[in-house]
Write a structure and sequence with these properties.
heterodimer, A: mainly alpha, Helix Hairpins, elongated, B: about 160 residues, mainly alpha, Four Helix Bundle (Hemerythrin (Met), subunit A), about 0% strand, globular
Chain lengths: ~100, ~160
């Protein structure tokens, strides 16, 4: 079985990919992809740490259970927001959705 | 330490699919790549002795979230969603630098802390049947709050997306 550090490095790489998407992409749906990737990186960290705990515990898995449910909610609300933004502005380019800019 | 072939394959699939999800020309292909990346994460969960979470990951992420994203892409589509949005050169490079620095520094910290981290897991992990009593026992109040939160979020999404006429 690989060491804990290798799991952490995979998770860090996934986080890096997500941050790259958040900073560079302009399509709102792609921003949502990036957020999901970052949440998954965090989940992987939780599960890896809880597996390597001695004595064994399940608290990390419980947290990931909640996290997955929260991410599903976040995706539902986020996609509804994207739909509304598209209906109002007929674009989902986040650089053009700047009506609140003074 | 002999490199673990399963781990390497899973890492390759997950990271490549994640990159593809952001870089694919068509948004639909991006969503499918995202699903593949989620399946890779589920594979990691299996390799970490968390089969219940792997099942949940596939059911919720691949089954619900990605399908929801696909529906939204179809609703939003008007050549708008499919347009390749490449940031201008300077912006893309800056994003790459930020993300790369962050990932490398986190990985570096993990590698530096490596000697004090456990290298091999305890031989016996708790069985899956252990998760239920913990979830419904000591974590029962958060579970109820989560149920309320789920219904609130779904109602909110419905109200937001409703068309008024």
């Amino acid at each position: 079985m690989p060491t804990l550090v290798s799991y952490l490095i995979v998770s860090a790489a996934l986080l890096g990919i997500g941050i790259y998407g958040l900073t560079v992409k302009r399509n709102a749906i792609r921003l949502l992809f990036s957020i999901e990737l970052i949440v998954n990186a965090a989940n992987l960290n939780f599960v890896a740490f809880t597996r390597f705990m001695n004595p064994p515990q399940v608290s990390g898995q419980v947290i990931v259970f909640y996290s997955i449910a929260a991410a599903a909610m976040e995706a539902a609300v986020g996609l509804a927001l994207i739909l509304v933004a598209f209906r109002l502005n007929s674009t989902i380019d986040v650089r053009k959705l700047n009506k609140l800019k003074g | 330490m002999a490199p673990d072939i399963t781990f390497i394959v899973l890492t390759t699939i997950t990271l490549l699919a994640a990159i593809m999800a952001l870089q694919a020309k068509e948004l639909i292909y991006g969503a499918i790549s995202l699903a593949i990346s989620f399946i890779g994460i589920a594979g990691f969960f299996v390799s970490l002795d968390a089969p219940y979470l792997a099942m949940l990951q596939i059911a919720v992420y691949v089954g619900a979230v990605v399908v929801l994203i696909l529906f939204t892409i179809m609703l939003v589509r008007r050549d708008e969603a499919d347009k390749v949005e490449h940031a201008e050169g300077g912006e893309g490079a800056a994003g790459l630098w930020i993300a790369g620095l962050l990932a490398v520094s986190i990985a570096g910290v993990a590698a530096l802390a490596g000697p004090s981290l456990p290298t091999s897991p305890p031989p016996a992990n708790l069985p899956v049947s252990q998760l239920g009593p913990v979830l419904a026992g000591s974590y029962s109040v958060p579970l109820l709050i989560l149920a309320l939160l789920l219904s609130a979020a779904l109602l909110g999404a419905l109200v937001l997306a409703k068309v008024e006429r």
